[in-house]
Amino acid sequence: MVKIKPLSGEIDHLLTLQTVTLRQNGQEKVLIIEESSAVPPALVMRFAGYNSPESAKALNGAELLVNREDAAPLQPGEFYIEDLKALVVITAEEHGETGKILGTVSDIIEGGGGDLVEIRLNDGNVKLVPFRNEFFGDIDLEKKHILLKNLWVLE
Q1: Minimal CA–CA distance to 34: which of 52, 22, 11, 50?
Q2: Domain 81-154 -> CATH class
Q3: CB contact set of 110 (below 8 Å; sequence gap of 6+)
Q4: Which fold has domain 2-68?
Q5: Per-residue confidence in pLDDT tens, the chain, 155 aa
Q6: Domain spans, the chain
Q7: pTM
């Protein structure tokens, strides 16, 4: 059995899955779930072909991906991490001028105090910004941009 830590904090919807996609070292493969059970706040799964502790240990640190229709339903103000990746980070409009493009979201990292947005700036530098309302404003998935409200956080 492999312990799974869901990013959403919800597990009920995962207990009905029959397959998941495993992402590890830049590669993906589909795993068949033979058994799963809740161990709140996590769950455990046994995958076909991983029949020993040694083989299961090879999955350590991998990401499990589920189809969107099998994912936890979103509440207002919630987003799927994959939807945030590659969003263009922009500044607010000032004096009637369009906001400036600062870079793109390259990842969302779980930190001890909350999620961190990894931003790859136009100059190639990478900055981490807490994913909190005081730093980020409008998130527009259709226009594929996210508003950074406080530029000082990049210094």
Answers
A1: 50
A2: mainly beta
A3: 7, 116
A4: Elongation Factor Tu (Ef-tu); domain 3 (2.40.30)
A5: 999 988 777 888 899 999 999 999 989 999 999 999 999 888 999 999 999 999 999 999 898 888 888 888 888 888 888 899 999 999 987 655 667 999 999 999 987 788 999 999 999 999 999 999 999 999 999 999 999 998 899 98
A6: 2-68, 81-154
A7: 0.72
